[in-house]
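Q: Convert this sequence to structure tokens.
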Amino acid sequence: MKERTGLITFQGMPLTLVGDGLSAGDKAPDFSLLDNDLGPVSLSDFKGKVCLLVTVPSLDTPVCDVETRRFNEEASALGADVAVLGISMDLPFAQKRWCGAAGIEQVKTLSDHRDAAFGEAYGVLVKELRLLARAVFVVDQQGTIRYEQLVGEIVNEPDYEAALSAAKKLVNG
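A:
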């Protein structure tokens, strides 16, 4: 598997990403992740919708907590034609517990803990930590990535406005 360096850091320490990077215009790889009840979920389950794929290292960390809460707040304004998927390596049980405590209802949290196949396919698996990098992919109704944001410093939040704007543009034409 391809490894990429020089793209992200953790508190200034360089990290290695596993997998090819994806860019706007690429076909979004399908995936099989686990939902909070251990059921399989794939990108094809959301065919015909715009998808925000929001990857975070762990929901139980301060920045990931803030980020997921923010996307949860924004999700209802995006409408029913947009699915917001929060993806991490956290166990489904931990995701479910966290969502319940945080009141998360608009973001569907999914786990890549089994084999990190999503992380590798999307090029966001952090080799040194076996966690996902902080990134946002906006996928259109036909399954093409239209926006990609890899956050360079893993402890920083993403550019929410840019990601949300990209999703709104796809819904509103």
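The mean pLDDT is 96.
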